[in-house]
Design brief:
By secondary structure, this protein is α+β, with helices and mostly antiparallel strands. The protein folds into 2 domains: about 150 residues, 3-Layer(bba) Sandwich (YerB-like fold); about 140 residues, 3-Layer(bba) Sandwich (YerB-like fold). Helices cover about 10% and strands about 25% of the residues. The chain is built from 6 helices and 24 strands. Strands 3, 4, 5, 7, 8, 11, 17, 20, 21, 22 and 23 form an 11-stranded mixed sheet that branches. A hairpin with a 5-residue loop joins β18 and β19. The two termini are about 35 Å apart.
Length: about 375
């Protein structure tokens, strides 16, 4: 077992670079990759043969030039699939809501930071045309480890001192847009007070990528496959687990997140879990995206228990690399107990059922709820 001391202050560096060689990114000429504008893609009309095939087999792409997303298993343009995602650190206290464009994120993480507050990390796949993302706040080292799994451009505004001391963000393979170093890459609004009013757009991220000569395309640092998905025509209902699959049409994380008090309600009509949480003034309600007006919803919920310690000034360390911890998987109104493993910085976190078989997620967005291994939550 890997002990949590590997991520305590001033002892992170050995873990940071394990399994990833500096300078392992691509060698393309940056001048041919970055324009500061949305990368153009060819729009291809579906052929008559494609339309006919799709009528016969819904597993075929709806039009030419589309592939399955490794994040959601949904059909996306193959040119979008070649572009690296972004990982944006977003605060989740009542003064920071509403956040903008979270409903467009493919994966959403939530974990505690100091003072029992929680922070979100949104993984966006098709992000280039988003006009307002955030608001954006400082990252924590454990969010960086989870971000590495997707090899994204990490977007944040600063970090606690020990993050830089231990080279989490300064590692040669890490590419990030940081508001403390590139304030001009962000903008502030006047509808709320600092530090809750910093936002960024897809165009601004592209400009920063160009300025820093980052790779816009995938660098092959991560495996081609991350999650395992069930076939969309044969969704995973968890009924194969018999009595081990518990009814879970309501998942309440209040005991683990006492300030945001988030909970999820299952809608059997569309097969999604809808998120609600504390808003302000003692009121709980739907967690709504300020940009789209949509309530956040997910096909899959993963609860991941991790070892956690306080390391000074209220800051936390979390054990992101392990092979022995457990959690729960919720989908289609049911839930099963799972275990998880992550064996390297750029290796995926994988989830397994109690027989040791990797679980199959359903097509769509996934919310990953990170909690301390001694914390509780309820469902029914």
């Amino acid at each position: 077992m890997i002990t949590i001391k590997r991520i305590l202050p001033f002892l992170l560096s050995a873990l940071l670079l394990a399994g990833c060689e500096p300078g392992a990114g691509p060698t393309e000429d940056p001048g041919s990759l970055y324009t500061g504008e949305k990368i153009p893609t060819e729009s291809t009309k579906p052929s008559q043969d494609t339309e006919k095939n799709n009528q016969e087999d819904p597993n075929l792409p709806p039009q030419d030039g589309m592939v399955r997303s490794i994040l959601t298993n949904e059909w996306i343009d193959e040119e979008v699939a070649k572009i690296r995602p972004i990982a944006v650190t977003v605060p989740n206290e009542y003064r920071a809501v509403p956040q903008y464009n979270l409903s467009n994120a493919s994966i959403l993480y939530e974990a505690k930071v100091e003072g029992s507050m929680t922070r979100l990390m949104a993984i966006f796949e098709d992000w280039q045309e988003l006009e307002k993302i955030g608001n954006v706040r400082s990252i924590r080292p454990y969010f960086a480890y989870w971000a590495f799994e997707w090899d994204p451009i990490i977007v944040h505004w600063g970090a606690p001192y020990f993050t830089y001391t231990n080279n989490v963000l300064d590692a040669e393979t890490t590419e990030n847009v940081d508001g403390t170093r590139e304030e001009s890459s962000f903008y502030r609004t006047t509808d709320r007070e600092k530090p809750h009013n910093a936002f960024i757009s897809g165009a601004m991220i592209l400009a920063s990528i160009q300025k820093n000569n980052y790779s816009l395309t995938n660098r092959d640092l991560t495996p081609e496959k991350h999650f395992t998905f069930a076939a969309p025509t044969e969704p995973n209902t968890l009924t194969q687990y018999g009595e081990d699959a518990k009814n879970a049409t309501y998942v309440d994380m209040t005991a683990s997140y006492p300030l945001t008090r988030c909970y999820f309600t299952y809608n059997s009509e569309d097969g999604l879990y809808y998120r609600s949480q504390y808003l302000s003034g003692g009121v709980d309600g739907p967690h709504v995206d300020g940009a789209t007006g949509k309530q956040l919803s997910f096909s899959n919920l993963l609860v991941q228990r991790v070892k956690q310690e306080e390391i000074g000034n209220g800051y936390l360390a979390m054990q992101c690399h392990d092979t022995t911890k457990d959690g729960w998987f919720f989908t289609k109104g049911k839930g099963i107990h799972v275990t998880w493993q992550k064996t390297g910085d750029y290796e995926p976190t994988q989830f397994f059922d109690d027989t040791g078989k990797e679980i199959e997620l359903n097509e769509g967005k996934t919310m990953i709820l990170i909690i301390r291994d001694t914390d509780n939550f309820t469902f029914r």
